Each structure stands twice: as C-alpha cells, then as structure tokens.
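Researcher: Let's run the pair from yesterday's discussion. Sequence first, then tokens, for each.
Model: Starting with the first of the pair.
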Amino acid sequence: MSDVTLYDTTLRDGAQMEGISLSVDDKMAIARRLDQLGVHFIEGGWPGANPKDDEFFERAKEIGFETSTLVAFGSTRHARSTAAEDKNLKALLASGAPVITLVGKASEMQVTQVLEVSLEENLAMIADSVAHLRAAGRRVFFDAEHFFDGYAENPEYALQAIRAAAGAGAEYVVLCDTNGGTMPVDIFATVSAVAGAVECGVGIHCHNDADVAVANTLAAVQAGATQVQGTINGYGERCGNANLTSVIANLKLKLGIECIGDEQMEHLTEVHRFVAEIANMPRSRYQPYVGESAFTHKGGLHASAMAKVETSYQHVAPERVGNVKRIVVSELAGRANIAIKLQEEGLSADVPKEMLGELVDLVKQKEAEGFQYEGAEGSFRLLVERALPGYKPPFELVDFMVVMEKRRRPGSDPAASEDLSEAMVKVAVDGDVKHTVAEGNGPVNALDAALRKGLEEFYPHLASVKLTDFKVRVVDTGSSGTGAVVRVLIESTDGERRWSTVGVSTNLIEASWQALADSMEYALLSR
C-alpha cells in the first residue's frame, strides 16, 4: 500500500469544538509536540481571520520544524473579483506558510443556494485561486467541501470541482465529508471512483456526526487516498473530526502503513494527554489505544487468561502506543485479578496463596457496601495489608469533630456572608495522642489540615503529600436523596508518585475522613 501523509488540523478545525479556546502559546506548544510525533503537515489556522492566528504564523517561524510542514488555511477568492485583489489570498501569502490549503465548494446545492453563484463561477474561483498561489511559489492543497454529498447529488459537477483544482496545480484534492453523515461503504466506493479521475494526490477529511469518521478515513485509504486529515482526540465542530490518534494507530498497526516511526508511535498516549491538558478538555479514559482504560482488564476470566497469554484479551501490545496494561479488582474479580494486583504492589511474597480466595470475598463484600477499588489502588493495598496477621497501622483515630458556621447580617447581601469550617482531630501514634485543631475553606480541607498537624510531628515527610483531586458520587445501595450512601475518591501525590483512596458512608464527612486517612497511611506504608 502507498505511503500516507498525516495532516493535523487540531489548531484550526479542532479549535472550533465547543469548549475549546487555544491561546497562541497553546498553539505553539501543540505544534511542537505534533512535530515531535512526526505529523507531516500542521494546519496552524486561518490568516487574516483573527489577530491570534496572524500572531501564531509570525511566531511559528521560531519553531524550526524538524518533521512537519506548516500549513495556512483559507478559502478561494470571492465571487466576481480577481485572485490578485482578494484580501483572503493576500493574507494567506503574507503568512509565510509554505503550504496553503484552500477550501471550496464541490456540491451543486452548496454553490447555488449557499454561495449563491453560478456553477461556472465557482469553478473559476477554484482554478483562479489555486493558480495564483502556485504562481507565488506555494504548494497548494484543495479541500473539496461537501464533496461526498455533492457527489451523491451530482457526481459530474463534484468531479469538475476537483479537476479544476488539480488542473490549476493543486498537489492534493482532499475529499471532505463535511456533514459527517456518509457511511464507510459509500466512502470506499466514491474514493475508488475518484482516485483515478484526477492527476494529483487524493486526501480524506471526515467529520464524526455518524460516529464513523475513523472508519471512513481508513476506508478512504484502502480505496486509494494518500493523505489523511484529522485532529488529536477527535476535537472539532459538532461531534468532532476523525480522531488522528486512532487513525495513526490503525494505519501503522492494522494496515501496515509506516506513517510515523516506531519510537514516535510510543509517544502517542503522551500526545493524547498533552493536547487534552493544553485544551483544558477532560480525557476520555475509554478512548481506543490511548485511553487509561484501553488496556484495562476487570473480569476475572479475562485476568486469568491475561496471566497466561498477553494477547488473549489485547489486540495490540499497549507499549507500542505508549500505554500500559492494567488489572483492576472489583466484584467481578477472580483470584487471578488479586494475584496480579498483589504482584504489581510487591505483596506476592507476603500473601499466601490460600488467602487469595479470602481476599476475593473481602473485595466483593466491600464493594457490596459501596466501596470501589478500580481507581483506588491505595485503599486496595491497605485492605490487603490490614488482612495480614501482625499488621500495625502507623496511626489510629481517637475521634474527630467538624464545625461549620455561616454568618450574615440580617438584610445584607447573601454573597457577603462569611463561611467558617473548623476540624478537631485526635490521633494516636504508638499510644501518644495528639489533639489538633485547624481551619479550612471547607470541612474536608479543615479535616486534612488538622490530620496533617497531628501526624507531621511524628512523620515530617507527610508535608510533601498533597491532595490533587476530590470526587463525590452517590452510590445506589437502596437509600435515596440526602440519606443515600456516598463514595469519596481522593487522589494524592508526594511529587513523585500518585495514588487514589476511597471512603464510603451515609455521612459525607465520614467518607471523606476514610479516604483522607487511607491516603496518609498509604503514603507512610509505601516509603
């Protein structure tokens, strides 16, 4: 199969996703990371559309791309004007980008009813614009917008549009499923028909409105497309674009197309996380290849088989895309899950095999109460340690009390009220009881501060432990409303490691205390 070039449009099309707003610094950081990944073309934005994109193209000259080529995006000339006079084309040339992607209509309906120009004028707009940019020494790609819808309604005109671009010197004509509703079988048939109809490269640009953008992209490649366009994590308008992380992995690992190198491929998960962090978007843990759960095994049957044959429940080795295998314990766990988790925690030698069944039963009992250990490895290890004979906890709770007060003068603005949370904690370390009091911006924060105050005298290194995330959810165990059982999940770090702990109770403060205390105990246990 022919080589395939990767074209990333995260900085332009991806930034059109609801909830995403990238600064120039954000775009610079993402562009550098895409260059390291080995993406061939990076579409930086639309010069002349806004000051941010103009600044990006100016500053992008500092990057010094090693593997990528910067692309500027814009539209064909306006109707009833000339390419030389068109402000949009002038801005594209002024950007300095060596490659320019022009978007133009390839659908009869879009031309006559949206652009409101004649079919002949639209073809002239395409040809004139491409020829003008080529005469200025730029490489040109043509995005044939609404191509698949246009081909379905009037195939001859859709072909005329891309032939106009190819005849004027376009290096690629990129067939766009702009509305994202075409099926893979139709993508394959259309690209197969088009690939031999133009004397230039054919690319594919799919949106995900029918949830088949990745499948459509792969179908297009199998039909002859040699450029694929997409965005990291599938960001984009409406339901997003083709997810380039999945496309890259499938091209290389499933179709055998060496679109990037093996070492670059090992950074795919890292890039997925980096771009999500920069875009301030939640990561999907279930995203294929790069999600945290992509190679996670929960069922006892699965874990048992995985312990014998790595490929029994994995379609590729997670290391190839920079991810890792995870075995989680839950009410669905079997002895194999427990055995693998014990090995991961370095406890295999401490736990006799005859205890595995007891631990499975214990996990199932605790999960029936509302606990969940899939994302709380710290609490799972403590569960095991506490079940072992001779385990001595580093501290014990004597009691705690939390007071919350809200003050506001009668008739005053409610927003001007004062909130106060204060916690009193008594903990014992080797029989020495410490009684501490601390304030916080909420009851959990006050509890955390009081507990630390009591323990740091004995364990000074706990000062490095920080709470980084706090989640609460209602657990359906028969109660409802304010009397329901709640589960608190806390994530902590000491600057080097991260761990999560869990607490469950009908009392939110009690559940929070359990998770907080487990976090501190785990930090002491794992030193």
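Model: Moving on to the second of the pair.
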Amino acid sequence: MIKKGSWFSKFSIIIPVAALLGVMLLLEFTSALQESQTVDEGAHLSSGYSYLKTGDFRMNPEHPPLLKEISAFPLLFLNLDDPINHESWNTYNQWDFGRNFLYHNRADADLILLMGRIPVMLLSLILGIFIFKWAKQLWGNTAALFSLTLYVFEPNILAHSRYVTTDLALTLFLFLTIYALDRYLQTYSRKDLIILAVLFALAQVTKFSAVILFPILIVLLLLKKFHSPPGKLTYRKISLITAFVVLITGAAILLAYGFQTKRPIDDRNIKEYFEKQSAVTDLSDYSDEPFLARKLLTFTNPSTASGKIIYELAQKIPVPAFYYFRGLGLLIAHDFWGHLSYLFGRYSDFGFWYYFPSTFLLKTSAPLLLLFFSGICLFSAKLLKTVFCSDNESPSKIDIIKKRPLLKLKNRIQKKLNNFAIFFRKIPFTYWLLILTPLAYFLWALTSKINIGHRHILPIYPFIIILVGSLVTIKTRWRKTGKIFLTVLLTLYVASTIRIYPNFLAYFNELVGGPQKGPKYLVDSNIDWGQDILKLKHYLEKNDIAEVYLGFLGSLDINYYNFNRKAIPKDKDKNQIRDFNGVVAISVTVLYEQDRSYAWIERLEPDAKIGYSIYVYDLRKNKISL
C-alpha cells in the first residue's frame, strides 16, 4: 500500500500536473508562432529593450517597466541594433519606435517577437503551479487537478499568455499577493510578511491598475481582525503591516526605475504642456472644457499664483521615479477623458457601465459559467439558511403590529446580523480572500471609462477557477451523478477551447454563437488586435491572390510582409464600388468602425474568416449593387 505523503505518492501527482502545464505551453507556443504582432506588443517590447540598454524610461510610460523588461531580456542575446538611433526616440513616438525596432533590425521580426513572448508563457506556467498548490491545500489533489485543468484550457488565459502585454503578468502577481497574504495571516511570520510585501510591490511595477491592491489589502486586514479572536490582529499591527508594504513598494518603484530622478520640465510632453499653458492669458478660454479639466487647467496656468508655483517646482525639483508618476498621471487622464468603446453595435467615448459584465458572459466558456453560477447558488443558499433559519422563530406580520413593534423589529434584525457574524466566522478566512478579491477587482473595473478589452478583468479568473474546484468536494446523496455532471462539463469545456485553436483571442462562448458572431458584440482586443496578418498572408499565397484591397487594425509595419495592397473604397466612392473587381481583406474593427465607412461590405457574406478577425471577400467579376 502506498502511504500518503510518500515519494511515490508525490511523484504520481507531479506527472499529471507536468502534463497539463506541458499541454498549456504547447498550445501557447504553437499558436504564437502563427500570429503576428498585436497592437501593443511593438511598443511594449521595444520600450522594454530601451530600458535595459539605456536606463531611459521615456517610451511607453503609461505602463510600469517590469513585464516589458522581462520580455525584452532574451533579446539582449540577439545583438540587435541600438534603439535610440531613430528619430522616434527624440519625438517620444512609441509606435514608430516599436515598428523600427521590430521590422528594421538585424534579426527577423517574427523571431524577435517570439523571443519576447516566451517569458510571458513561462509566467503563465508559474501561475498554473500556484493555482494547483493553493487549490490542493484547500480541497485536495482531485479538486486541484480539476482547477488546474480549468486554468490550462481557459481560452482568455491562453489568449493573453502569449503576448508581450501586462495583463497576464498582473494576473500572476495579484494572485500571488493574495496567496502570500493568506499564508502570512496564518503564520504572522516576518518571512511571510516580506514575501507578501515583495509580491505586492512586483504587482505595482507591472501594471498601474494594481493600485487597487492598496484598498483591497486594508479591507482584507480589517475583515481578518473581525474574523480572528480578540487581540490576534490589532489596529496597530494592521497599520504596521500596511506601512511596511508601502515602504517596500516605494523601494521597489525606485529600483524598477533605476533610482532615476528627473525634473518634470525636462520631459518633452510636460514642457510642451507648460508652453501651451503660457500662451493662454485669458482664463475664459477654458470655459468650454469639462468642469474638472477647467479647474485643473486654471490651477496649473502660469498666470495664476498656483500655476506659477507649480511651474517653478517643475523647473527646479527633481522627482524620484519620475516616469512612474508620469505614467500614473497618464492613466488617470486617460480614464477621465475616456476611450472610444464598442459594445453590442454601439459606440461610446466614455464606455458602458455594463461593459465588463457583458464581456464576462460573452467570453467565458459556457461550462465554466455554469459551474461558477452553481457555486454562487450553493454559497447563497448556505448563507440564507444560516442567517434566516438558524433560530426557532419564524418571521410574522404579527410581530410588527404587537406592542413596541420597533423594538421587536430591532431585535429581529440584530439576530439576523448575529447569525451573519456566526456564518462569517465559521467559514475559513481563506475562502473570503478568494471571494472578495475578484469581487472588489470586478466592481472597480465597472467604474473604468477605458472599455477596450475583456483582458482588463483577466485577474478574476484564477480566483474563480479555484473556487469552482471546490465543487468537486461537495458531498450529496447524488454524488455519483455529480461526478458524471462535472466530468461532462469539463469535457465540453476542453473541447470548446481545442475547437478554437489557434485563435484563442477570438473566443466567444457557444451560448452567444461563438466567434462567428463575435463582432456583433465586441471588437478590438476581444477579437481583432492585428494578430492575424500572418494567417492572411498564408491564405493569399495558398489561393494565388496577388493583389488585395486591405484594411486592418494594427501597429505593425505591413510592408514587412510584402503585401501588394490597395485601399478599400469607402461608401462615398460609389463609382469605384460599382466597378469594383478584386479581393477585399478587412479586419472586423475597421469594418464596424464608428462612421461605418464600409457599410457596402457589411451587407455581403465573407468568403473566408481569417482567425475570425479578418474577413475576406472575393469580389472579382461580381457586380456590386448599391
């Protein structure tokens, strides 16, 4: 008999874990080979390389440097050209800089891109290991393997674990931070506190949206105080923990930016801002601006007392880690002014409050949705049973009309609150970490005006996956039926992901019609991020199409791939449309752009869908009816 905890027992669980992670890496790597650069990758990878080579953080300041440097590190071994010899370096043009770096260098552009993507794939494997580890600690091996399988085949995770972008890295470090917090709250050891602080800091230098961890940390510590026996966690200790985490984070930010200091006025964009402000002498010129913008412009105008002080400080006071605060300011400004967003065929400059609930329902696999909502129902039933059915009294209208009804009502409410407190303390605090962290992150996302991709709520998935894994452990009289149910759902889940390979970015669940119907609901990085140019090139070569009318979303250098291309006629070019004779390839974001310039194409049925993001229409010798 094999003893629990023996070498053989441990080895037997390592095999399926390694196999699952191996499958994940295989799916990521082989699909990445088939995809061209997405919109953001050129700017991220080139800026990361410039940080490592020059220590100058001027490029792409709207994202902290850690992930970009991790991705760019393998490129140091490719003997690439110095990135600062292009005009875009002096003009701070990150898009031209990225194009020049990738497509006019000593190495092949697709090799450079692949080398930058591999570190992100490795980070995804680390995340998988810790999902398994935490689930195993909570629910055991079977549930942990169930959770790991859900993670490995989660299409949104697979989509963004192959790109040089910050979404997967933030997901990793945010998850590890909460995992480390759970460990620290069990041991209260200095070692675990240091680990918590370091992981918290790594999240902050990965993506600016990690700032949500500050309030999350404080709220979770306060909840732990009420969950623990009196005196176990005091307000003083909470303050010291928070102060230590903030201190380590500040040190990490300084380190990440090379302890660089910079006078704000030496930044090209800030200098131009003050020059424009100095040209405005009549403050009534700001009257057409939104209220907050008007107040800010007035406050910083050098003709005002406050503006004069700010201008003097910008000229004289060097700021440590200047580009961290510059980037954070850019994010705040971006969110204030909003970003053009598309949802259900409509556009908005300020997003939609229901954007992320919609993307969650559209782009999460149907089996995972079913498991997730089943878990919510079971949890809610247990909560309601504890709160409302744990005493012998039953609510009655008679209580309200008897003597002193307000006192009786108050007593009844107090009992329900006490019951909830009992329920809160009976459930291990780890479970609350897993529930409240993604809930807080999701609710915070609802306030964002930057609605450009489901990827922005990617960090909620590891928590959901671990919680769903607990369903394996539920014991009921229908246990055998439950096992069959879970097995069927898991099989459908894996099949759904395999079916869309290698086009993971374009995943939409079967309940809404799959990726074929995707553009009806969402565009941009939800389905079309410029990733399918390589696939289009192969399609044109295979079908002997020498010339194409091309409209695409992307920041890559299209000339690198030697397309013989022409511009697609717009609706206003009626004569060109009437006499049109050629092949059109148009990405869905361009096809459904706000002004609907290509409505004449929308009415047609595409002959092919390349990766579901580029539609091809063979209109040779086909007369177009207007």
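Researcher: Give me one sentence on the second I can quote.
Model: The CA atoms of residues 155 and 321 lie 36 Å apart.
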